[in-house]
Write a structure and sequence with these properties.
The complex is a heterodimer of chains A (155) and B (275).
Chain A lengths: L1 E6 L2 E6 L6 H8 L18 E4 L2 E4 L12 E3 L12 H8 L9 H14 L5 H7 L10 H13 L5
Parallel strand pairs in A: 1-5
Antiparallel strand pairs in A: 1-2, 3-4, 3-5
Helix pairs in contact in A: 2-5
Chain B lengths: L6 E4 L3 H11 L3 E4 L5 H6 L7 E4 L9 E4 L2 E5 L4 H6 L1 H6 L1 H8 L4 H6 L2 H7 L5 H8 L3 E6 L2 E6 H4 E3 L2 E2 L6 E8 L6 E6 L9 E8 L2 E7 L6 E2 L1 H8 L4 H5 L16 H18 L4
Parallel strand pairs in B: 1-3, 2-3
Antiparallel strand pairs in B: 4-5, 5-10, 6-7, 6-10, 8-9, 11-12, 12-13, 13-14
Classes of the chains: A alpha+beta (155), B alpha+beta (275).
């Protein structure tokens, strides 16, 4: 079946099997491999992308279901050479170690800040409960999101 | 992991969904937010031949007041229930339970009707809705019928829904200003409840429901009767697990679940101002 969707501002029509998951459409059909597959069971959040601006786990969404909708992946966050403020926050506070969870963490944080622009540290921790980091990096991840929330950059 | 092959049918209204169910019969499975069904399909524990996707059925996504009742469309997402002012005003127990479903990503996709129809006994919303005396409106070829939360689930992931019926609305009697409590025990933040207890006061009485204490969500009838008979909350809570047959699994033994039911009932009653 054909699925037409906008990914990072570009419209695509992709011929996929009916059972194709959104994460496979992004990675295998569009070559957007920033979105990782971690647990593959809706637990770890590594595959988090934005669907019409809201975080979802792309391993648990059918590609067919998002026909006509808009998806943002990590590749779509930066404005040319200018990083998104959440990306800047992760760099400034070293909010990563191995980096595997990072794309999902960043996308979850972008969605969280869209819904709660000035969260407390506790609200950030709770807001990222759907994303697992196995390098014990939560402390710096929370600091990175708070940095992004406080940042003066308009984006 | 990917699901076994199936044919995908998109149904963007209740009528379109009913037509698809009529056409495909027993082979069809309704897909709402997919946060429970898709994981089961990926594990090949569910292998429907036809998936009827109702996730974009806009006519079933609403929260509105209907006299003394909150009428909630089956395709209303958890995140929209959490933030709906009429829910926080008239059924705060439901808003609170919805805020603890899975995680933010899950709450952006998952729906109240999907959760109810899936009938997982450890799910937050069916547990809360049972304490709220909710009822479920179902539409099928013969028209609509209303089923109480007590009668809806018949076993683990089993309900009274016929293959050609669609859950369209959840009706919650308003509990404005009434006390409530919700206690959920999990080992990790995003887990399903090991045990959950919902308490809802209403007109001088107190309803207590249990999540994951059997094959369906249950009312703690003995504890409710003890309270009605004048027992203290602490004494009534000792009867929370009366008559239950909780499962043993990797997270808890049956005896531990019974212990949790008693402790969590006591805490939920305390949260609702009963001591």
């Amino acid at each position: 079946m054909n699925v037409t969707l906008t990914v990072n501002g570009v419209s695509h029509t992709v011929d996929v099997e009916d059972r194709t998951l959104l994460v496979h459409l992004l990675r295998d059909h569009l070559g957007l491999t920033a979105t990782n597959i971690g647990c593959d069971t809706t637990s770890c959040g590594a595959c988090t992308v934005l669907l019409d601006g809201e975080s979802v786990k792309s391993c648990t969404v059918l590609a067919a279901s998002v026909d006509g909708q808009s998806v943002t992946t990590l590749e779509g966050l930066a404005d040319g050479e200018r990083w998104h403020r959440v990306q800047e926050g992760f760099r400034a506070k070293h909010g990563l170690q191995c980096g595997f969870c990072t794309p999902g963490m960043v996308m979850a944080a972008v969605s969280l800040l869209a819904e709660n622009p000035s969260p407390t540290a506790a609200q950030v921790r709770e807001g990222l409960e759907g994303n697992l980091c196995r390098c014990t990096g939560y402390h710096n991840i929370v600091a990175a999101v708070l940095e992004a929330a406080e940042g003066s950059v308009a984006r | 992991m990917i699901p076994a092959p199936f044919d995908y049918v998109r149904a963007d209204s209740a009528d379109a969904a009913l037509a698809a169910l009529r056409e495909h019969g027993d082979d069809a499975k309704l897909l709402a937010g997919g946060q429970s069904l898709l994981p089961l399909m990926k594990l090949r524990l569910a292998t429907p031949g036809v998936v009827v996707d109702v996730s974009r059925a806009a006519d079933l996504a609403y929260v509105r007041e209907d006299g003394d009742v909150l009428a909630i469309g089956a395709l209303t997402r958890h995140c929209d229930i959490v933030s709906a002012e009429v829910v926080t005003a008239h059924a705060p127990l439901l808003a609170h339970a919805a805020s603890g479903v899975g995680d933010r990503q899950v709450r952006h996709r998952g729906t109240i009707g999907g959760s109810v129809a899936h009938a997982d006994p450890s799910a937050d919303l069916p547990t809360a809705l049972l304490a709220l005396d909710a009822s479920y409106v179902v539409r099928g070829p013969a028209g609509e019928r209303t089923i109480t939360a007590t009668e809806f689930a018949t076993g683990f992931l089993e309900t009274v829904l016929a293959p050609d019926e669609l859950l369209i609305e959840i009706r919650v009697p308003k509990a404005t200003g009434e006390a409530w409590g919700y206690q959920k025990f999990t080992r990790r933040a995003i887990d399903w409840a090991t045990v959950a207890v919902a308490v809802q006061a209403r007109g001088g009485g107190t309803a207590i429901s249990l999540g994951n204490m059997g094959s369906t969500v249950l009312r703690a009838a003995s504890a409710e009767a003890a309270l009605a008979g004048g027992a203290s909350a602490a004494d009534a809570a000792q009867h929370a697990d009366d008559g239950t047959e909780p499962a043993a699994d990797v997270t808890a033994s049956a005896d531990y679940r019974r212990h949790l039911a008693r402790v969590l009932t006591k805490r939920a009653l305390a949260a609702a101002g009963r001591s």
